[in-house]
Amino acid sequence: MKWYLKSLEFKLKAIRVMLTSDLRYQKRRFREYFGYNPDLENPKKFNEKVLSRMLYDHAKIYTLLADKVYAKDFVAEAIGSQYVVPLLGSWLRVRDIPFSMLPEQFVLKCNHDSGSTLICSKKRELNVRKAKSRLNFFLGRNMYYARRENHYKDIVPEIFCETYLDAKGYAKERHYPELYRLHCFHGKVEFIEVDILDKNKECINIYTPDWTLLDVKVEGDNYRGKVCIPDAFDKLKPLTQMLLSKIGTDYCRVDWFIVDDKPYFNEFTFTPCAGIMKFNPPVYDDIFGDKW
Questions:
Q1: What is the DSSP secondary structure assignment for residue 19, as one 8-state letter?
Q2: pTM of this structure
Q3: What's the pLDDT at 8?
Q4: Beta pairing, strands 217-218 & 159-163
Q5: What pLDDT shows up at residue 123?
Q6: Closest by alpha carbon to 250, among 66, 55, 59, 40?
């Protein structure tokens, strides 16, 4: 019932959204979040440029690489399959997932959205009925109607299953970041945003490529404790720039995690936070925008 109600709520929201133009929707959403109107005729801030891309730049490559299954194939071909989490299967319908044949540990997620990840560390404890209900909700959700990110609109939705990798446990035990988001402008890594778990609270730090911590907060607190850097971190920048050479875009965020000192590609992101990435202090909205 919980996921049915959420699905109904989402469909009603989608209907309301369809009655509003993309431009009007995005300008109103931006104004409600930041308190001022975006400059879309001459965008300078990072979030304004993300918004401009969402509204006016509908390059096919964004849709292709936002598809998490296609992105795996792209990365494997570009830099090698050893940097891709192994795919165990994919299905167009939730009812086709052979839960009984899946390993004891696995990860299920949708290829076309954000937030659908279902991590199973002990299959005997998994409530399959609830898992199916949850996955059905996300499978039927189109991210375009959630935040008007056009490149998600035409992705054919499917569920896929990955090998389970305990990225959180590995990072926490060694004081490593859990996730590495490399913000890349014109083919060059300029900023590294990392997630760090602090007593079950997620903190975010932003560093320069040479690992200098910047005095800026993004959607939460900084982590001020001990942060170690795995040896594999040195591989992230050259691997990312190899990928960027195949894409040819002026901005892209490439996400990685590291397990057992091996880097694994996570996803490509072309419109972070759908244009409402809140920097504190706000001047970093301009600093990121200047790089673009």
A1: T
A2: 0.91
A3: 59
A4: unpaired
A5: 94
A6: 59
Between CA 87 and CA 216 the distance in angstroms is: 36
> Long-range contact list for 241-249, CB < 8 A, 24+ apart?
241/184, 241/187, 241/188, 241/189, 242/78, 242/79, 243/75, 243/78, 243/79, 244/184, 244/187, 245/187, 246/74, 246/78, 247/61, 247/65, 248/61, 248/187, 249/59, 249/61
Copy the structure tokens of residue 126: 């998994």
Q: In this structure, is the dihedral angle defined by the CA atoms of residues 215, 204, 180 and 233, taken in order, positive or negative? A: positive
The pair of three-digit structure tokens given for residue 31, joined into one six-digit string: 């104004």
Please give the average pLDDT of every successive group of 10 residues along the chain, which has 292 residues.
57 63 93 96 97 95 97 98 98 97 97 93 95 94 88 95 94 93 97 90 94 93 92 97 95 97 97 96 98 98
Q: How far is CA 43 from the centre of its chain?
A: 23
Question: Which amino acid would we find at residue 188?
Answer: K
Q: Please, are residues 179 and 150 in contact by the beta-carbon 8 Å criterion? A: no
Report the C-alpha gap between 30 and 67 in whole angstroms: 26
> Could you give the 3-state DSSP secondary structure of residue 248?
coil
Q: Where are the alpha helices (DSSP H) in 140-222?
A: 143-147, 167-174
The letter for the amino acid at 242 is M
Region for residue 12 given its phi and psi (left: phi exceeds 0; alpha: psi -120 to 50; beta: otherwise)? alpha
User: What is residue 3's predicted lDDT score, i.e. its pLDDT?
Assistant: 53
**What is the spatial distance between Cα 198 and Cα 228, in angstroms, rounded to a whole number?**
14
